[in-house]
C-alpha cells in the first residue's frame, strides 16, 4: 500500500498488481484490519473497504476524526487493536481511542512529545507508544509507566501489537525484546542484521550476517 499526493494505491502481492477497485481519494490516513480483510481510511469519517470484493462496507456507527479531514496530516496514523475492538488515531501529540464497533470516542490523550508509533492494547483501555527510544504505557486513568532501551540501541522494528521490539546498536546485530518489561533480550534473537514481525507478533523475518 502506498499513499502520496496522487492518492491511495493498493498493490497486491506477489504479482505487484494495482487494485484499481479502491478509490484513490479514500482518505488521508489508512490502515489494514488485523485479518487483512478490510482497509480503513479516515477522511473525517473512518470508512471500511472490503479487499476481496473491492467494495465499501455499508455505513455503520464508525468513528469520526475531525483532523483526518485535512488534506495534509503528516505523521498521522491509524491502528487497530489485535482483536479489532479498539481503534487508535494519532495526530502529532494527540491520541484518540475509539470503540471500533460503535464509533464512540473513549479517550483523548496528549503525549509528552510526538510518538513515533502507537498501539491500542487488548484490554480496551491501555495504549502503548514509542517516544525517544522509550516505550510508554498509558491507561485511561492517566497512570503512566515507561521502560527505556539500553544505551545506544535504536528501534529497528515493532510488532503490530506493540509487544515485541527489535533493536540494533551501532548497525550491529538485531536483538528482540519484550517491550513491556525490557529485561534481557529474548533467547535466540541475536545474530541478525534486519528484522520484520508478522502481524500477530509470533514470528520475525530476519537476515543472517
Features:
2 domains, 209 residues, mainly beta, Methylamine Dehydrogenase, Chain H, disordered C terminus, 4-stranded antiparallel sheet
Major β-sheet annotation: 4 strands, antiparallel
Rg over alpha carbons: 18 Å
Q: Indicate the low-confidence ranges by residue numbers.
A: 203-209
Kindly report the average pLDDT value.
76
Total number of distinct structural domains: 2
Write down the CATH class of the largest domain.
Mainly Beta
Question: How much of the sequence is in beta strands?
Answer: over 45%
Number of strands: 21
Oligomer: single chain
**CATH architecture name of the largest domain:** 7 Propeller
CA-CA gap between termini: 29 Å
Shape type = globular
Give a written overview of the molecule.
- This protein has 209 residues and is an all-beta fold.
- The protein has two domains: 2-148, 7 Propeller (Methylamine Dehydrogenase, Chain H), CATH 2.130.10.10; 153-208, no CATH class.
- The chain is 0% helix and 49% strand.
- The protein has no helices and 21 strands.
- The protein has strands at 2-4, 7-9, 11-12, 17-18, 29-32, 38-50, 55-56, 64-65, 77-80, 86-91, 94-99, 105-110, 117-120, 126-131, 134-139, 144-148, 153-158, 164-169, 174-178, 192-197, 204-208.
- A hairpin with a 2-residue loop joins strand 14 (126-131) and strand 15.
- The two termini are 29 Å apart.
Amino acid at each position: 500500500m502506498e499513499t502520496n499526493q496522487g492518492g491511495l494505491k493498493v498493490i497486491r502481492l506477489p504479482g505487484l498488481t494495482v487494485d484499481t477497485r479502491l478509490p484513490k481519494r479514500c482518505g488521508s490516513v489508512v490502515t489494514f484490519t488485523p485479518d487483512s480483510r478490510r482497509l480503513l481510511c479516515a477522511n473525517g469519517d473512518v470508512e471500511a473497504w472490503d479487499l476481496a470484493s473491492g467494495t465499501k462496507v455499508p455505513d455503520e456507527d464508525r468513528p469520526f476524526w475531525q483532523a483526518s479531514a485535512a488534506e495534509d496530516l503528516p505523521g498521522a496514523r491509524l491502528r487497530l487493536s489485535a482483536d479489532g475492538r479498539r481503534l487508535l488515531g494519532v495526530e502529532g501529540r494527540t491520541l484518540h481511542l475509539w470503540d471500533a464497533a460503535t464509533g464512540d470516542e473513549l479517550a483523548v490523550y496528549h503525549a509528552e512529545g510526538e510518538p513515533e508509533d502507537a498501539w491500542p492494547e487488548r484490554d480496551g483501555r491501555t495504549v502503548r507508544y514509542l517516544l525517544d527510544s522509550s516505550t510508554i504505557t498509558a491507561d485511561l486513568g492517566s497512570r503512566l509507566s515507561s521502560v527505556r532501551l539500553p544505551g545506544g540501541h535504536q528501534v529497528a522494528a515493532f510488532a503490530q501489537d506493540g509487544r515485541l521490539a527489535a533493536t540494533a546498536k551501532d548497525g550491529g546485530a538485531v536483538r528482540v525484546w519484550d517491550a513491556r518489561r525490557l529485561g534481557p533480550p529474548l533467547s535466540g534473537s541475536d545474530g541478525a542484521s534486519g528484522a520484520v514481525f508478522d502481524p500477530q507478533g509470533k514470528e520475525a523475518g530476519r537476515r543472517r550476517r
